[in-house]
Specification:
Layout (H helix, E strand, L loop, with lengths): L1 H24 L8 H8 L2 E4 L2 E7 L4 E10 L6 E5 L5 E2 L6 E3 L5 E14 L4 E11 L2 E10 L1 E11 L2 E11 L8 E4 L2 E7 L5 E9 L5 E6 L16 E4 L20 E4 L3 E3 L2 E5 L4 E8 L1 E8 L5 E6 L2 E7 L6 E6 L7 E8 L4 E10 L11 E4 L2 E4 L4 E7 L7 E11 L4 E9 L7 E9 L2 E5 L6 H6 L3 E10 L6 E9 L4 E5 L12 E10 L7 E8 L4 E5 L13 E9 L1
Parallel strand pairs: 2-11, 13-31
Antiparallel strand pairs: 1-3, 3-7, 4-6, 4-10, 5-9, 7-8, 8-9, 10-11, 12-14, 14-29, 15-28, 15-30, 16-26, 17-20, 18-19, 19-26, 20-25, 21-24, 21-26, 22-23, 22-25, 27-29, 30-31, 32-33, 32-34, 35-36, 35-37, 38-39, 38-40
Length: 557
């Protein structure tokens, strides 16, 4: 026992001596500078990492949005590389610096045409990448079939990739008719106003397409057609390619959005659980039109503040979806709320039930051209509504297409308002640097907008026509030193206007909440000395760029 204790004691002493010696001779570990720590921890990620563009045929294209995210504390610089084997069409560069806010990037793949012989066909493709106002385009010819490519993003911490997949198909061997959109919403107008919209017609087949268009009772058209059931309201804002969706406009009365909504061909499209759409309407029931896609996921639907459904927005390829939100309810005002899930949702519009749909007088719809011969080009069919003999109410009808490649039926909707209905002025938002210019008459200011390099962002809200009861002038000032515009209903301004030049009224704004109005919020950036106006209580995300809430300017539509 004593011997075992002695051996243990000796080993313990040896161990303590070794530890002490190591502590005296161990090399000192140098501290890493903060800048180097940022670079070590800088990391980028993409969401989603895999994008399915669905099925494309000649003349078609697909667009998707993904996000570049900074997962570290630094602000790394990045630049994009095109897929291997693709040719850069010009000397372009897609790069940037990313902070803590995810950077949206758009990918668009265009199937230009078929090339090659009938036995060995290929596809001529254009790939376009867009981010931060920059764009780069790449070209390549590939065989028909499945295609999966990689786009790489290089930064100081390494490389991150996003992959896209598409199925490329040949033209149909026979003519094939395709028209868009399938529903036309002309909005609300006063009697007598002429109005026109266009329908796009394509041939998805290899053989020539012969077609004819018209209304019921015309040549090669159905003899009669009952009016549609329920009124369709489109969420399309008519301003495509801006990147950000604006909900203001005559055909979207009662529509409010919160979160980060992009526009996809003019429609609201969002990804992430912070996106909410609210639509107020009067009727007995409502159905929702949306697009399913490989990036889609479930989203929640609420009716009058009560949860009613969880709708699945996923599909193997992009396709239209429709869901009836609720059965017959009492006639009156109701609220539809859409809350996005983790996937992407793109909303087309709604169909409101309850009010009768009338048919216009004979000849109230004119279609031109009403016939044609189409190979690979896109034809534009004009639909003109003659409203001078229409009494107030909701009207609906059909425009029919007959061809050797199939038939199509496009629903047409219009609401004629009483002449006593309030008249509204659409306010267009322009941006140059940090200066936001709002105008209700862009044609009159076209020269100034062009010379100063203003970029049209969209329709921000609507003001009232001059003289509307309960409203007052909404004035505009400009500070040439700051390069900033300021707006107020107070002719003396409700802040210091030193250096600002008076530019007059752009319309009328409500001084208290009228029926159907909402707050117009003013935001201010003290670092830049610039103002921003919006109906979004969150400031459209500009708080992250130094803007702070600065009060309510009034009430608008």
């Amino acid at each position: 026992m004593a011997r075992r204790f002695f051996i243990t004691f000796i080993l313990l002493l040896f161990g303590l001596s070794a530890v002490a010696a190591w502590g005296q001779t161990a090399p000192e570990i140098p501290l890493i500078p903060d800048d180097d720590l940022d670079s070590l921890h800088s990391a980028l990620a993409v969401d989603p990492q895999e994008i399915d563009l669905g099925i494309l045929g000649p003349g078609e294209d697909a667009k998707r949005t993904f996000y570049l995210k900074n997962m570290g504390p630094g602000n790394p610089e990045w630049f994009a590389e095109g897929p291997e084997g693709w040719t850069l069409s010009e000397n372009q560069n897609l790069s940037g610096v990313i902070g803590q806010t995810p950077e949206p990037l758009r990918i668009r793949l265009v199937y230009v045409r078929e090339v090659g012989t009938s036995k060995n066909r290929s596809c001529a493709l254009i790939l376009r990448l867009e981010a931060g106002g920059q764009a780069a385009a790449f070209r390549r010819e590939v065989p028909v079939g499945d295609l999966r490519e990689e786009v790489r993003f290089n930064y100081d911490g390494g490389t991150i990739s996003v992959f896209f997949h598409v199925r490329l198909v040949e033209l149909s061997p026979v003519p094939l008719l395709k028209v868009e959109p399938l529903r036309l919403d002309f909005g609300t107008i006063c009697p007598g106003e002429p109005i026109m919209k266009r329908i796009l017609l394509n041939n998805q087949g290899r053989e020539p397409l012969r077609w004819r268009a018209g209304v019921a009772g015309g040549k090669e058209m159905p003899p009669t057609a009952p009016p549609p059931v329920g009124r369709y309201v489109s969420f399309r804002n008519g301003v495509s390619g801006t990147g950000t969706y604006s909900s203001s406009g005559p055909t979207r009365e009662g529509l409010e959005l919160s979160g980060n909504w992009e526009e996809e061909e003019g429609y609201p499209s969002g990804q992430g659980e912070q996106n909410v759409l609210r639509y107020r309407f009067t009727g007995t029931a409502i159905s929702l039109y949306f697009w399913k896609s490989p990036e889609g996921g479930p989203f929640s639907v609420f009716f009058d503040e009560q949860f009613v459904n969880l709708v699945d927005g996923f599909a193997e390829r992009r396709e239209r979806g429709e869901v009836l939100i609720t059965e017959e309810q009492l006639e009156g005002p109701h609220l539809l709320v859409i809350v996005n899930g983790a996937g992407r949702v793109t909303l087309e519009g709604v169909r409101v039930f309850g009010k009768p749909i009338q048919k216009g007088h004979r000849g109230w719809i004119r279609v031109f051209p009403d016939s044609g011969f189409t190979t690979r080009e896109t034809d534009y069919i004009n639909v003109v509504l003659r409203t001078h003999r229409l009494t107030p109410g909701i009207y609906g009808d059909h425009v029919f297409f007959a061809s050797n490649g199939g038939d199509a039926d496009v629903e047409v909707f219009l609401e004629v308002a009483p002449e006593t209905t309030l008249r509204f002025l659409e306010v267009h938002r322009y941006l140059a640097g940090s200066d936001y210019l709002y105008t209700t008459n862009p044609k009159a200011e076209a020269k100034r907008l062009q010379l100063k390099g203003y970029r049209h962002i969209g329709i921000a809200f609507r003001l009232f026509a001059p003289g509307t009861p309960g409203t007052t002038d909404f004035f505009r000032w400009f500070n040439p030193a700051r390069g900033d515009h300021y707006y107020s209903s107070d002719p003396k301004g409700d802040t210091s206007l030193s250096g600002y030049l008076f530019e007059g009224s752009i319309g009328s704004i409500a001084t208290s909440r009228l029926t159907g109005t909402r707050e117009l919020y003013r935001w201010f950036n003290p670092a830049k000395g610039s103002y921003f106006y919006t109906t979004d209580e969150a400031g459209e995300g500009l708080s992250k760029k130094g803007y702070r809430f600065d009060g309510i300017a009034g009430f608008v539509r």
